[in-house]
Structure formats: C-alpha cells, structure tokens
Amino acid sequence: MESPELASFLLVTHYNGGAFSGWQRQREVRTVQGEMEAVLAGLCGEPITALGSGRTDAGVHARGQAVGVRVPPRWSADSIQRAMNAKLPRDIWVAESFPMQPAFHARFSAERRRYAYFVGTDRGAMSPFRRHTEWPLGRPVDLTLLNAEASSLPGTHAFRAFAIQGTAPPDDNHECEVTLARWRAVDGGVVFDIEANRFLHHMVRFLVATMVAVATGRRPPGTIATLLLATDNRQTTAPAPPQGLFLEQVTYPATLYLSST
C-alpha cells in the first residue's frame, strides 16, 4: 500500500498518439503510460504508477489527458512538471501540474470528459501535415445534417449501438450522460465536440462515422436517434479512423484541488 505521505498531483498531458499503441502500459510495445512511468521511475528512484483518466486507443491524441501520480513529498507541482518535460520523449508533454487532495483518483474522480474529432473535407486534408491528425475525408459534408443528427445525443442514453461489444462488463447498462454534442466548421473541415460523464470503447468514432454517413447521403436522416434505441452495434457504421480523435479535457470537482504554495 502506498504511503499516505506521498504527494498527489494531476498532470495535464498532451501527446501525439501516432507512434503509440495506445495509453495503457503493454509489454513489448510503446505506450504513453509506459513512457511516463519510465520517466517517473528514473526521477523518483522507485516504480511510480501514472494513472490516466481513461485509455486512449492506438493513434488517438490528447491535449488534456489527466494523469494522476503519487510521488515522494520532496516534489512540488512545478518541479515534477519541469523534471518530467526534461526527460519525456518529444511526443509527450506535461502542460500543467496541480497538487491534489489524497482522495484524488484520475479515473474515478472525473465528472466529465470532452473529446474533439477532426474531419478534413478539402483536398488539403491529404497533406502529410494534416492526415495524421484528421480523418482525411476529402469531400464536402452537410453541416446542418451533422448537427441535426448530433441533436439527438444530449441527455442520458444507452449507447449499445456505439460501443465495441464485449468490452464492458455484462451487467453494464452502457448508459452515458451527454452534456455537449455539436459540429462546427473550421478551415478545411469540420469538428465534432462531445462531452459526457463517461465514454464507451470506440463510442466517439462510431458516432462520427455514422453522422458523416448521414451528411454524405449514405444513410437517412434520423439514423442516430434510431440507433440510440438499438441493443447492439450491428447496424452502426464502422468506426471512423483513430487519428482524428483528441481527448481535450477532463473535469474534476474543485474540492479535489489543493492551493499551490
């Protein structure tokens, strides 16, 4: 059991997921958690767990992955951030560090998570400077239709149609409470923003691919509303590619943050 004297920190972490086999530590493949824990072990002289707010798949990026660490009390929020950034590989960066209450848990304390998915709709989406951080669709989409489909998502629903079967416990109801779901135009494409209390495996990618199928005329309007009533994912469009997906922000109760000294 970890000593209660350890200092607890929240590390808000950015990473380019292109060269990683996802977040979770695995043998013989490169992962974000594995790289962060290797650096922490070197800095602290002992194994330190880097606990993420959730797992991201291979190829998925983050601008706001919340990572919880418990380290010896000689470390401050500033010093652990500086030391880690000096040692981490160039595709991982700790953007912010906050001292937290001992009760803080990166996964279970989270109230909401927000993702963004980028779709490139112009020919320039195939550029090597964009295709690794967007779905290079390369064709127009109807933004009005996209938002009409997204309007069915806010609220609490069972997202069985938008999850990989068998990845949740058998007794899980697959319910998620969505507080934000919208599409917006950006230069060269569109972005889907979604915030919820939890996400299922591949959920955002299933949603994006299905809405894009409606907006490009391959599925009828109202498909999302229909699939929210489905009990499995057999009628759902195959998930969008991983590289367009970014974990943008994780929200925690304000009472878990300690004042910096």
Structure, explained:
The chain is built from five helices and ten strands, in the order E-H-E-E-H-E-E-E-H-E-E-E-H-H-E. It has 261 residues and is α+β, with helices and mostly antiparallel strands. It has two domains: 7-109, 2-Layer Sandwich (Alpha-Beta Plaits), CATH 3.30.70; 112-248, Pseudouridine synthase I, catalytic domain, C-terminal subdomain (Alpha-Beta Plaits), CATH 3.30.70.660. Strands 1, 2, 3, 4, 5, 6, 7, 8, 9 and 10 form a ten-stranded mixed sheet that branches. Strand 8 and strand 9 (189-196) form a beta hairpin. It is globular. The protein starts with 6 loop residues before the first strand and ends in a 10-residue tail after the last strand.
The SSE string, one letter per element, is EHEEHEEEHEEEHHE
CATH topology name of the largest domain:
Alpha-Beta Plaits
CATH level-two architecture of the largest domain = 2-Layer Sandwich
What is the terminal-to-terminal distance? 27 Å
Overall pLDDT: 95
Number of helices: 5
- Helix fraction, binned, reads 10-25%
| CATH homologous superfamily placement of the largest domain | Pseudouridine synthase I, catalytic domain, C-terminal subdomain
What value does the Rg take, in angstroms? Answer: 19 Å
